[in-house]
Amino acid sequence: MAQKKPEKLIDEKDVRLDGRGLKELRPMKIEVGVLGNADGSAYIEQGKNKILAAVYGPKEAHPKHLAIPDRALLRCRYHMAPFSVEERKSPAPSRREVELSKVIREALEPAVFVEYYPRTSIDTFVEVLQADGGTRCAAITVASLALADAGIPMRGLVAACAAGKVEGRLVLDLDDIEDKEGEADLPLAWMSHSNAITLLQMDGSLTLDEFGQAVNMAVEGCKQIHGLQKETLKAKYVAVKEEVEE
Amino acid sequence: MPAFYERREIVTPGDLLAEDNYVAGDNTYKEDGKIYATRVGLVGYDDRKVFVVALKAFYVPFIGDMVIGKVVEVGLGSWIIDINAPYPAVLRASDAFNRPFKPQRDDMLQILDVGDLVMAKIIAYDRTRAPLLTVREPELGKVERGQIVEITPTKIPRVIGRKGSMITMLKQRTNCQITVGQNGVILVSGRSPEDEQLAVMAIRKIDEEAHTSGLTDRVTQMVRSEKRGVEHGSKET
Asked: Matching CATH topology for B10-54 and B147-231?
């Protein structure tokens, strides 16, 4: 059952369908260390998105011929659960998932010190349990936390967020319906310490001026997410500290 | 040349720790004169050096370390040992037999089989080769009895304590032999399962609360009260 498109995605008072302002992120909840068997893990809820990430490694690369002599092999699998969308999705990896696995890996790799552990592999698994637009961004956000939770040395955390254009207005963090009905979507991943962009994609069309504004908006969104990422990583240990030292 | 964090403050990867004149220590890196953290951990300063004591990390082999590993493969003339590191370690049969290994004469399975635990020392390791182990020292070799506790390898110094204060206390109060592998695997063997259980509990507590202060006192207290509980329990039954 496809959702029917409402008449307006943004009302006269600049309020979006889910009640957000134009430059407002969806409510987010992040947790780290949620899985017992993985070396590192994290879980994120961003609006209606629910995504789980697990990291294994660094460990001996298998199959062995994939091992790289001077650095670690970073592998990433982005997968959507069959029940993550309205119409059942085939569990086999689709063309889209293969592509997203690649862009997520490339967004994370600049942040990881792969050269420290030659001949090993670091495996990242991202499982989308419920999807509502912007899953690639949420996946990058949560996967970088899982990597940090696994104790893998990183140059910095990677945060990701989309900006786009809906009904002629620039908006931050598009959800599924805004992405589908809107004019443009621009997902972007950003590293705080070097102020570098590690993922930039766009579909739809924007003028040059709008593009610049959208990039700045997305970076601002990433900054907010990055703050939340840092808090989440610390929270686990701060809680123990407070409990015993009170 | 400012430093941005207090000693023992928690930092995350990418946090700017210090600028200019500082030197990057463990779990940090320097870029354009700025020092950033690479892991979640506690900041420390040692004169000009800034470092991070990681709260979660994996074991990286180091020559001279005593480790406890598990045999995963019996090969032709060597065993492959899992030492919880990114690289599997090798133990040569000639090392264990203490003479040149001859397959006609020596049965490797007599010494170590798949699944056995072994205490060993790392004698060679670099970026290009797998770590090489030796068991030719007293105390080293197959683990015959006891319980294993696995903790985050970076917390091993906390289990040992300043000048061994923590481990001496644990050994005395729990009546257990405690052997610490640098790879985060700890062997506890005592006279009774209760003693061992107590030591395991204490080590778990150290692992969880490694980043807090006054830890030795709290662990001592826990061991004392648990012990009392056990004695009371045994009297009642």
From this structure: no
